[in-house]
Amino acid sequence: MKSMITQTIESNAARFKDISRFIGANPELGHEEFLAFARLTEELAYHGFTIERGVLDIPTAFIATYDSGQPGPVVAFMAEYDALPELGHACGHHLICMMSIGAAIGLKSVIAETGGSIRVYGTPAEETKGAKVPMAAAGLFQDVDIALMAHPYYTYEKSGESLAMDAIEYEFFGRSAHAAAQPYEGINALDAVLQLFNSINALRQQLKTDARIHGIISEGGKAPNIIPDYAVARFYVRSATRTYTNELVQKVLHCAEGAALQTGCTLKTSFYEYSYDELRTNETLSNVFTDQLFELGIQPKEIEIGKDHGSLDLGNVSTQCPTIHPFVKVVNERHLLHTKEFRDLTMTEPALDSMLFTAKALAYTAYEVLSKPALLASIKEEFAAAK
Could you tell me which residue ranges the Peptidase M20 dimerisation domain spans (predicted)? Predict the structure, then answer.
């Protein structure tokens, strides 16, 4: 069965590479991925998948399904295809989407033997307002048995952790005045923002080591001789768990309320991006993926333990079904994500070959689960215990 998966992926290698190159050469920001959306859905339809477009009224979101016609588990592959502002595909999403789609098409070649169904979730805007968040909130993963994806990197790394995150905007409203002639008539909104930063910095002494609070001043006034009547700060508030992140959000809110009270400003808070939950790696499923890397020739010494790489909207998926997010080596040089160097190397032939390699590993993993009911039972048992 695995040789059939390999043969299917390799026979479509030229097509898969061409699509990845096209998306890489035509970067689109989150919720604007119309070219990528068209190419990806056309390819899946060509291979017999049924396409639901515009999921949850998100124009560039889709769910592609192939049903074996026999009862069995639902395997989901996550496709990401948004780019970064100015940097383009410096996070390798043009590889991620074709890793998942290649895996789905490879798995399709054997699913008549195993039963079950395959879904590819096209999830826009992972870098900002990740579509996995509203998809998870709508329950679109609740009947999924396993969810798989892999992320390009400069080394192999097991699926690890991510931080739960809230993106919060604090707006302070004061009263403008001439800063030299009548400063006493003003209420300085910028002072409130500065006080917020100072209060958060004082708060850090009492926070757990996994807490991350970092922000910018996105609006601080118009001219030095005008008391600013409006100022805005945007923060990411993160920690290892949703529970503690919720506590942090309240602590920061108290800092903002105190800053408003001290300066005489009024305060408005809002979320300017979606909230991400922490990634809960299913270790049993993760070990299956690692075993497939070994089977495909990767040595144990090449695979590092899982680490924290910030925040992922996949975390919201992992609260609803067993999920993994390993990192895979696609470049030989040690270049970090979100850099021009990484972006350029992910467009080369070795990176595209690694994309196909990863598609095989993902498809092999899904086949192992589909063909071994006891393995799926162990995966679900771990998931239930974690919840």
Answer: 171-254
Kindly write down the DSSP assignment for every residue of 314-335, as one continuous string: HHHHHTTS-EE--EEE--SS--
Joined together, the tokens standing for residue 318 give 């992992």
Half-sphere exposure of 123 (CA within 13 A, CB side): 33
The first and second tokens of residue 57, run together, are 């009224």
Q: What share of the chain is helix, strand, coil (3-state, %, to 5)?
A: 45, 20, 35
Query: How far is residue 255's CA from residue 234's CA, in Å, rounded to a whole number?
Result: 14
Measured in residues, the chain has a length of 387
List, in order, residues 6 or more apart from 150 with CB less than 8 Å away: 96, 99, 289, 325, 326, 327, 328, 358, 361, 362
pTM comes to 0.91
Domains of the chain by start residue, with CATH: 2-162+276-386 (3.40.630.10), 164-271 (3.30.70.360)
Place of tokens 């002639």: 181
Q: What is the CA radius of gyration of the chain?
A: 23
**Single-letter code of the amino acid located at 353:** D
DSSP β-ladder status, 266-271 and 230-239: unpaired
pLDDT at 184: 95
Average pLDDT on 305-326 reads: 92
